[in-house]
Amino acid sequence: MALPGEVGHGYEAETDEDARIIAAFKVRDDATLMTIAKARGTTELVSPLMVCQSGAGFYIGTYSIHWDQDWQDQFPESGGWFVEPYSRESYDYYATEQAAQAALDNESWCPR
Hints:
Layout: H1 16-26, H2 30-39, E1 44-46, E2 50-54, E3 57-67, H3 69-74, E4 81-88, H4 97-106
């Protein structure tokens, strides 16, 4: 469930801002993500459903960007913000990014 200020967890991009957030997560544009989170008055921003990648392959899930004081102390250049996987929503892993994106676009993926 989304917290106040978060992008709704568990749905595809519904607004231009959702699409902007997905694009920023894809290229790790932390500055844009920080700006959006700060404008919403939150220390965490969760992406809408998108194609994610791990060592096991591509999957449908979400990412989040968090602000953390300990991270700020250890890595001052980060401004205290870091991106990490938030959830894996698909049961399956996909061999290619294109296959995962097609499953997301066609709503043909199986939830966990």
